[in-house]
Design a protein that fits this description.
Blueprint (H helix, E strand, L loop, with lengths): L2 H37 L11 H7 L28 H10 L3 H17 L6 H17 L5 H14 L4 H6 L6 H13 L3 H13 L3 H12 L17 H22 L3 H15 L52 H22 L4
Helix pairs in contact: 1-13, 3-4, 3-5, 4-6, 5-6, 8-10, 9-10, 9-11, 10-12, 11-12
Length: 352
């Protein structure tokens, strides 16, 4: 082989090594970006015909703080609605096509209701009731974005949505029923619990009674709302509420109602009150040998309609992709290729 041929081969080896290194680095960056994207929580989208408006406004919505949902925080964009009259806020909530404005309107109304400063006329109550019913219906949307946005709006409105959520405890759609139970258990206080008990006593609808009793059993469940500033009754006060109001009612109901299905639901409810579930987000730990990270599991729930386990609370499954080629390995390989090339060239010219 001539000197020129050896030089050409050496240069080819060097170029190939550099190309190979750049390709591996690009793949590594792409894999990292894909993992970051997959690890992000699912974000809510506006319901119905406002889905497109949500997507168009996404670029205008300020970025959330760490660990905070982009669809749940107080919005900084646009007009401050907190100074507007209630009538105008209700109007904007029910008619606006701006997703962020709807969120802000719901948050202001919910905040005022919590503070006890909200005053609604009959027409405003009806408008608000219709809007809440539409959001409850969207909790069964086939699109995850629509479901999360609807749940977030319900939590912004907070206990303003409680009467409609109680109505939905006997809903024929188990997804709507489950959403009603989960949101009511976060809104719990003594008045809400007594309202549910009153409805159980006065209702002839067995499906409603099953769902309502099941909801009573979840009133110590530990959850985290999607919306900031929505505070759940702590465990100590929740236990006091269960001991004072819920458990005595369940004991009386169990003695008076011979329905086998109701008996089983009451038994489960009392067990849940004694050992409440914790469905708050868990820290991901326990790395596995294959590089995956095992999330802390959440206990399954029991469906009030079937007395069988509900779908467990989904947990994000974080994975760490094992790569046989790390950046350090790539640099070593490129360095070796350069060294071999230089050695060949220097040997040809008698400088080795």
């Amino acid at each position: 082989m001539t000197n020129r041929s050896v030089i050409a081969v050496s240069i080819f080896i060097l170029v190939a090594a550099l190309f190979f290194a750049l390709t591996l680095l690009a793949q590594s960056d792409e894999s990292t970006n894909r993992q970051k994207t997959n690890a992000m929580p699912s974000e809510g989208a506006s319901p119905g015909n406002q889905t497109q408006a949500l997507r168009e406004s996404a670029a205008d919505v300020p970025k959330p703080d760490r660990h905070e949902s982009a669809f749940s925080r107080p919005e900084d964009r646009g007009e401050d609605l907190s100074k507007l009259e209630t009538k105008e806020i209700v109007r904007r909530l029910s008619t606006s096509e701006d997703t962020v404005e709807q969120r802000k309107a719901a948050k202001v109304l919910g905040d005022r209701a919590i503070k006890g400063t909200l005053r609604l006329e009959d027409a405003e109550q009806e408008t608000l009731r219709e809007y809440i019913h539409s959001q409850i219906a969207l909790t069964a949307s086939t699109q995850g974005e629509g479901r999360e946005e609807a749940v977030s709006q319900i939590q912004r409105l907070w206990r303003l949505a409680a009467p409609s959520l109680i109505d939905s405890l006997g809903h024929e759609n188990p997804t709507v029923q489950e959403a009603a139970i989960k949101n009511l258990c976060m809104m719990r206080n003594e008045q809400l619990v007594k309202d549910i008990i009153t409805r159980v006593k006065t209702s002839d609808d067995s499906a409603f009674q099953y769902g309502a009793v099941f909801a009573l059993g979840m009133m110590r469940e530990k959850r985290k709302p999607l919306v900031p500033d929505r505070v759940i009754l702590d465990d100590q006060r929740s236990k006091a509420l269960a001991d004072k109001v819920i458990t005595p009612f369940l004991i009386r109901l169990q003695a008076a109602n011979p329905d086998p299905k109701m008996q089983k639901i009451i038994t489960n409810a009392r067990e849940f009150l004694a050992s409440p579930l914790d469905t708050t987000p868990k820290r991901v730990t326990e790395p596995l040998p294959n590089g995956e990270i095992k999330p802390t599991s959440s206990p399954s729930q029991i469906s009030p309609s079937t007395a069988q386990p509900m779908s467990s609370v989904s947990q994000p499954r974080a994975t760490t992709e094992l790569r046989s080629w790390q950046p350090l390995h790539i640099l070593i390989g490129v360095g070796a290729a350069i060294a071999v090339t230089l050695a060949l060239v220097m040997r040809i010219y008698g400088r080795y």
